[in-house]
Amino acid sequence: MMNPIDFFKIQRRFILNSTKSFRRVPEKTVMDTESETRAYNLAGSLSMIPVYRVFTKIACYLLPERPHNNLSELLVADFGSGPGNLLIMMARTMGKINKKIRFLGSDLSKPMIDIASENIASANLDTKISVLKADCTKIEFVKRNSADLSTSLWVTHQFRSASHVIDMIRLMNNLTTINGSILLMDFVRPPTEELVKMVVKYTGSGIPENDKNYINSLKASFSFSEWNVILEQARIRDVKVAITSPIPLFIVIYRMGENTCKRIINNSLLPPLPENFTFWNRFNSMITQFLIEMSLRNGGFFLSE
């Protein structure tokens, strides 16, 4: 059986150097039933925490020090917020370093918005976080040039085509202030279906239904070469790209605003990992946090060779 560390090295090399991949298999774009959304919320509330932690740490680094135009508070706009769990983690974490931040999330699914509203109210954050139903590829759910930080996690692999990804990236740019920051993160599709299975083997939950959805998400993601084309066509200024996280690999697309605070938060400010995590899930999460920490301290993001 292959050592997971060797597997990580092989996967990283394959993804960065491969010009060919198996054909992308798009997922269902919108979860439009209550049963689907509640199952997703239940499955993701624990299994997604490690990635939420990494994303939140990068978002805190990119958060501007002060609002644009001398406004009273910063605005974080989240594209494709799902059940709101990431918004809750960002609000709790960022609130420990800056009390004057409000968050506005969006999702195309009405049942998902309903669950997000429930989760936000249960977290006693409904005065800080608002969510609304909107297509994050074309609906300007905040005013143009008003968001100090625009974020999106695990959304693009749900789109039917690359053109929708381009539309969302352009919209994120349009709604973000000139000196604001942008952060987008999602899976990179492994070059072979065998690698997809191995990724799930090492980092899956072990729950058949959850792991099936995990496989579908990886197959629906864009390859590294496809991402290069997307970003070339989006034509957004000052956008940088990094590949991070051992298994699976994620693409991190970011724009660092001029007054970014570049604060590296202590991991103690983030919620702990679930107790029922496997050894390799814990190891993978710890390595990812270490790589992010080192890359931020060096003024950039971890980029694989």
Main sheet properties: 7 strands, mixed
Order of helices and strands: HHHEHEHEEHEHHHEEH
Helix residue percentage: 40-55%
Gap from first CA to last CA:
25 Å
Number of helices: 10
User: How many separate domains make up the residues?
Assistant: 1
Tell me the name of the CATH homologous superfamily.
Vaccinia Virus protein VP39
Q: How much beta, percentage-wise?
A: 15-25%
Mean pLDDT: 83
Low-pLDDT windows of residues: 300-305
Category from helices, strands and their pairing: alpha/beta
- The largest sheet has its strands arranged as 3-2-1-4-5-7-6
- CATH fold naming: Rossmann fold
Number of strands: 7
Overall outline: globular
The CATH architecture assignment turns out to be 3-Layer(aba) Sandwich
Radius of gyration: 18 Å
Q: State the CATH class.
A: Alpha Beta
Describe this structure in words.
The protein has 305 residues and is an alpha/beta fold. It has a single domain, classed as Rossmann fold. It has helices spanning 4-17, 34-47, 49-62, 85-94, 110-122, 162-175, 193-203, 208-220, 224-234, 279-297; strands at residues 74-79, 101-107, 129-133, 147-153, 176-187, 240-244, 250-255. Strands 3-2-1-4-5-7-6 form a seven-stranded mixed sheet, with helices on both faces. A hairpin with a 5-residue loop joins β6 (240-244) and β7 (250-255). α7 crosses α8. The longest helix has 19 residues, at 279-297. It is globular and about 50 Å long. Mean pLDDT is 83; it is low at 300-305.
